[in-house]
Structure formats: C-alpha cells, structure tokens
Amino acid sequence: MTATVNVYLDKQEYGKDKVRLLKVHKDTNVHRVDDLTIRCLLSGSSFTTSYTEASNKAVVATDSIKNTCYILAKSSKVVDTLELFAAELANHFLNTYGWVEGAHVTIIRHRWARMIIDGKEHNHSFWRDGDETRQTEIFIKRGPNCKGRRTIDLKSSIAGLLVLKTTGSSFEDFVRDEYTTLPEAKDRVLSTCVDATWEFNVPAVDSVNVLSTLGQIPFNTIYDSVRDVTCDIFAKDESASVQATLYKMAAKSINNWKWLERVSYALPNRHFFAVDLNYFRGTKNLQEHADVYQPVADPSGLITATVARSLSARL
Ligand SMILES: O=c1[nH]c(=O)c2[nH]c(=O)[nH]c2[nH]1
Predict the structure, then answer these.
(1) Is 171 a known ligand-binding residue?
(2) DSSP string, 237-264
(3) What angle do CA 221, 193, 186 make, to 5 degrees?
(4) pLDDT at 3 (0 to 100)
(5) Which atom of ligand 1 is nearest to the CA of 239?
(6) Which residues are catalytic, by number?
(7) Is the pTM of this model over 0.80?
(8) pLDDT tens, residue by residue, 290-303
(9) Is 292 helix (H, G, I), strand (E, B) or coil?
C-alpha cells in the first residue's frame, strides 16, 4: 500500500561517515602523520527520487565516497592542512558528478605528538597526548544560477582542550535571592574543556578557483594562533567569570585575523568545590584556606557565545 502523499522530502544529505585514515608523510626520514576521521555528505535535487521512488540511478554509493577519501589522500599535497584537504574532497564530488549540488565534508584530526627518546624528538614514533581534536567543516555549493560558481561555508574548530588554573579566577556580585546557596568566590579553581569554532569569510568563486582562493588563507597558522590565544588568555586573565574570559578570547582572534567572521566558544564550567573540613578538628579549608577540592563532574555550568566582526570593522 502506498503512503498518503500529504508529505514531501524537505531536505536530504547522504554519504559516508567515520572514514578512518592515517596519512604518513615520508618526504624525509622525519615522518609526519595525519590521523583523520572524515565525513562526506552529498546533496542535490537529483537524489530526491532515491528517497521517494526507490531509484538509485543518481546515487554515488557511499562505498565509492569512502574509496574517494583514500584515493585523494594518496595524491593530495595538502592533507596536513585540514581545510584544504576538505575543500579538495568537496570540490572533487562537485566536479566529478554534475548533478551533485552540495558537498559537505567534515574532518577531525586526532593528536599524535612526537616521542622524546634519549632527549631527542624521535623520527617516526608518536604518542597520544590528549583527546583534544582539530576539526574543519566545509560546505561547497554550486551557484544557483551560474553552475560554474561555488559558494563556500567554512569553519574550523578545536574540540576537547581540557584546561585548569588554580588561581586568578573569581565569581562575585551575582544575583543573591532565596534560590542562592553558592558563596561568593574571590579566588577559585577554574577548569573547562574548550570547544572553539572560527568561521571564515570566503567569497563566492568560480569552480576552478576554489583551491587557489582557499590556498591564500594561512589555515594552520590561524589554528595555532586561536589555540595560543585561548591558552594565553585563560592563563593570564584575572577572570571575573567564564563569560568575561570567553569574550576576550573570541574578540582577540577576530582582531588578529581578517579572514575570521565569527568566533564561538562553548565552555563548560567544570566545578571544583573546596571541601568543608570544619567537622574535623575545626580544619580550615574554605575561602582563602582552600587547597583540597572536590571535582564535580555533573552538573557543570555551560557558557556559550559567538562573537562577530561588526559591520564597521569590515569596511
Ligand atoms: O563563571 C561563572 N559564570 C556563571 O554564570 C556561574 N554560575 C555559577 O554558579 N558559577 C559561575 N561561574
């Protein structure tokens, strides 16, 4: 029995997720590695019938999409710049399959730090120095009227950068009412797991110019810089709140880089509460006496914001 037709396919994207890939750069005997997890999703009106009429005529198998990731990783010269490799992949799908209207590629890079052996960086041995990842997400679309044009939405992120400072953070002067139990804190432990995202301002370009246009943006330097700014401000700011520190971090990176349009942070406030030890022989461990804390995994605060370049700054 056919379903009643008071519905329509509103949107669709399909492809391969969690394609795992390790690229070893062997150009010298000091090897470098890029350990990636890739998602490639395709979209376009030609795929509608694969959902609504069970027709696979336009469907590029997700297995072929996976193979493409490996084939391009073999030939690519830019795997170590996530944004450019993501653009190469997305562009490939648009150039190869004329009916694909949008290619949406997300790449996560997992950390491998060089081992120090006998006091020296080792040529080909690495260790996982944390769960933090670098990520990028690109969505390249064919121009609606001019098929040779491409519009590019591009953003990159740091996810899971776990940081902690033991002083230089306060939280005072907040609302006190009958719901409040939290004491004012002049000096507290501050810890968060940073998710930072920066959105690039990329003009629409002709299909042949996608990679050369993006090639002008110093993506790896921007990533290093946003990470440095995050750590620098986290460490040096006399923080009045997570909100105030977040704003300084985001504003600084927008001011540093003309390519950045918006910078967002999501900062969980991982609480460390001083343990009240007064019950044990009057032991003082609160306020200025605190040095034993209880980390509280749940619940955590969550402070999020996006800071954007103002229109006047674009002129
Ligand atoms: O930096 C903070 N911001 C808050 O909004 C908040 N709320 C809270 O209980 N502790 C904190 N800390």
Answers:
(1) yes
(2) --BS-HHHHHHHHHHHHHHH-TTEEEEE
(3) 110
(4) 58
(5) 1
(6) 16, 62, 271
(7) yes
(8) 999 999 989 999 99
(9) coil
